Structures are given as structure tokens and as C-alpha cells.
Amino acid sequence: MTAMQARGFFDGTIVTIELTLISIALGLIFGMLLALARISKNKVVRGITWTYVWIFRGTPLMLQLIIVYFAIPLMANSITGSYINVSMFGAAVIGLTLNTAAYLAEIFRAGILSIDKGQMEAAKALGMTYKQAMLKIIIPQTYRRVIPPFANEFIMILKDTSLVIVIGLAELTRVSKQFAASGEWKFYFVAGAIYLFLTTISTFVFDKMEKHAARYE
Amino acid sequence: MSMIKTENIHKYFGENHVLNGIDLEIFPGEVMCVVGPSGSGKSTLLRCLNHLERITSGKIFIDGVLVDHRENDKDVLKSDPKKVAEMCAELGMVFQRFNLFPHKTALENVMIGPMTVKKVGKADAQKKAMELLEKVGIAEKANEYPSRLSGGQQQRVAIARALAMEPKIMLFDEPTSALDPELVGEVLEVMKQLAHAGMTMMVVTHEMGFAREVGTRLIFMDEGKIVEQGTPREVFENPQNDRTKDFFRSIL
């Protein structure tokens, strides 16, 4: 491998990591809001979030990425007559975030619903508002239960960043494909090894987090 | 003036008429024990007082102030959630299944109410919490998580947690029913201390010994109604109602 190729792999790996971390971080916030909306008393709010989750879990991520990057600018153009510019990286983050938020919402919702009703009652009996009870009592207790499915989703997104190849962003998979174009098949395995390394580290970190979250049991 | 007063409270769970016209007044310093067969509405009554269940119709006054007024499951009195939360904090609640916060230590369980709701500083909250844990005789377990405590210890922490909010009245919902028999005594002892210190209490219980010894008034409920009431001595020794007689005969 030449220095130029090593450099290419390094940059591609960084893009993959950035995409994963940014999308998961944004998806985490958005997914939590969706989860709270899904258990809201308001029927309309519940309906909207149900529809959101239904659409984003029911269609392929690759198609969602294509729509964000190619279709939406065209749509905007035909409606408003002006162009909007979305960078490849920006489109990739938006697509991945919207998708992972739908999955995370379901994970968080299940986590919240798994907490004994007596916890909310005890918090209310102390005079806490719904918001205080959620933030201080209910959500912190979901961590341990939510970490394993969250870890799963994290690793899924880490691997699914390879799908952004369809919009042309130079992440790890695309870099390996470019280098392998001249017949050097080994580069695909280099990419595979890097993915495996990243997923292994992630698994290790989440295992530690799960143990820490279970300390009070 | 009464601390809690209810007027014609009704509660339905679907078709089930759980509370059927409850009129009740509790005065400062009273220890009111509520007894009756299971399904008679005792716990529901307690839970309605601090909004854990919403009444179907009727009125609830606390300290003479109307805090809840509903007809046909609709609010007649519009109250904002903040006021309701404040009001709930005036009524301390102890649950049958303790409901301690498992992710907090015993000490933190007692601190979190004042810190979150009353915005008390950490140092003050901690000092107060330690005093309360000492009062319920469990200071040496302050830094343990609830999962490491016995049922009796957990319930004593739960009592301290409720007391930390400096409630005007303490509601106990069958506080010893989930305990192993040998742990019941330590919890009743703490409750007895509280009663002697002048705390106003409403206790749903099956502990007739406690009711007789500590209670200042006994209420017997059946099928959602208050069937009989009086001093524990009167009701135990000379029950007037046939259902009360049957109940005492069946448990003694």
C-alpha cells in the first residue's frame, strides 16, 4: 500500500466515524423526543410520530439517502424555483439521523414503558411534575435496559454508513472501491478489517457501559 | 379546620363503582385507620386524595381550599399542573410496594424530593436526609442502594423520603402488606413514633393491633362506602353494622 493509499483509507475511516457519531448523537436527541411524543396523551402528536416511525422503518435507508440528496433539491426547485445546496456530508448526516431516530424512538419507548408504574407515582407523590419525574426518575432507569438495543443500532448505523456510497461521499467503502478499481482486490479486505475493528471496539465500550449502568442492581 | 375534607366522592373504573359517595374529614393530629375487605375502595380513596387516581365526581378540600372538583370525569375546577404538584407534596405518601428509586442510594432517595421540587441545596438536603434516616433508624444504610435493603428497611427509607417534603399529612397505603411477618414490627414502630410526634396520618391497613393501639379514629369501608366509623375501641368492641361484624369475625 502506498502512502497515498494509506492516507486515503485514513481519511475514509474518519468520515465513517464522523458520520456515525454525528448521526447517532443527533438521532439520540431526536429519537428521545419522538419516544416521548409516542407516549403522549395527545392523539394527534401520537399519530404524527407513529406515521414518522412507520415511514422511516418501512422504507430502505439507501432510498432515503437518495431522496435527501437528489430528490429533495429537485422537489424544492420545482416548487420554489430556487436551488438549495446540500453538501454530500450534510445529506448523509440528515438521512442517517432521520432513519436512526425512528429506530431509537422505538427502543427508548420500550425502555420507558418497561419501568414500573410505581416509580412515576412515587415521583408525583413527592410533588414532581411530569417533566421532572421523566428526567430524574424514569429516563435514568431506562439506561441499563436501553444500552444493549442501542449498541445494536449503533453498530448497524456504523455499517450502514457504507450506503452513502450511492450519493458519492468518500467514506471507507467508497475509498476501498476506488483503490480496488485497478484490480487490487485486497483493498476490500482492508476496509472489512477496519469495519471489524470499529465494531469490536464499540461492542467492548457498550459492554462496559452496560455493566456500569447495572451497578445498583 | 379540617386538613382534608371530601364531599360525595365517586370513582368508577369502567362499570365498577369503586367509591360510592365518600364524605370524610380529617383533623390535625388525627391518626385515621381505614380498614375493610379487599376491593372495598380503601386504597383507591387514598390514591384519589393526592391525584394518583382522578375522581369521577365530587370535591376534595385541603386546608379548607378546594383543590379538586369534578363531575362526570370532567374538571369543574380548572387547576394548573404546577399547583397540583405542589398540593401533592403536602400529602406524603407511603406505598405498599415501597416504590423506592432503585438507581438512587437510600440517602439520595430522601434528598431528591426537596432538591428537585423545593430547590433545596445539596448540602442542606443531605443534612436533613441524614437526620430523617436516623429518625427511622437506618442511618447506617444511607449509602446502600434499595436492592441491598430488606423490605422493612426499604419501607423505612420510603417513610423518610415522604417526610423529607415536610408534608402536613402522611398517607399510608397498606405499608406492611408486602413485608415478611418478622419485618412488620419495625415499620409499625416508626409509624407509631410519628403518630406520637403529632403527625396527622391516614393509614389503610390490615394491622388491627396497630389500629387499636395508635388509631384515633377507625373507618370501616365496604363496597365503596364508609359503613361505620368511630374510635377504634367503639368499632372493634361494639360494631353496629352486620358487615363490620362479619369482617372482624373473619379476620380474628
Question: Which SSEs are present, and which pair or pack?
Answer:
The complex is a heterodimer of chains A (217) and B (252).
Chain A: H1 3-38, H2 43-58, H3 61-80, H4 88-113, H5 117-125, H6 130-160, H7 172-180, H8 186-213
Helix pairs in contact in A: 1-2, 1-4, 1-7, 2-4, 3-4, 4-6, 5-6, 6-8, 7-8
Chain B: E1 4-13, E2 16-26, E3 31-35, H1 42-49, E4 57-62, E5 65-71, E6 74-75, H2 81-90, E7 91-94, H3 106-117, H4 122-135, H5 151-163, E8 169-173, H6 181-196, E9 200-204, H7 208-214, E10 217-222, E11 225-230, H8 232-237, H9 242-251
Parallel strand pairs in B: 3-9, 3-10, 7-8, 8-9
Antiparallel strand pairs in B: 1-2, 1-4, 4-5, 5-6, 10-11
Helix pairs in contact in B: 3-4, 3-5, 4-5, 5-6
CATH topology description of chain A: MetI-like fold
Give the tally of structural domains of chain A.
1
Fraction in helix of chain A: over 70%
Overall 3D shape of chain A:
flat
- Return Rg of chain A in Å: 21 Å
Largest β sheet strand count, sense and barrel closure of chain B: 6 strands, mixed
The CATH class assignment of chain A is Mainly Alpha
Order of helices and strands of chain A: HHHHHHHH
Task: Summarize the entry for a quick read.
Chain A has 217 residues and is mainly α. Chain A has one domain (3-214): MetI-like fold.
Describe this structure in words.
The complex is a heterodimer of chains A (217) and B (252). Chain A is mainly alpha-helical and 217 residues long. Helix content of chain A is 81%, strand content 0%. Chain A contains eight helices and no strands. Chain A is flat. The termini of chain A are far apart. In chain B, 38% of the residues lie in helices and 27% in strands. Chain B has a six-stranded mixed β-sheet, sandwiched between helices. Chain B has a five-stranded antiparallel β-sheet with strand order 2-1-4-5-6, covered by helices on one side. The radius of gyration of chain B is 18 Å and the shape is globular. In chain B, 49% of the residues are buried. The interface between A and B is medium-sized, with 20 and 31 residues.
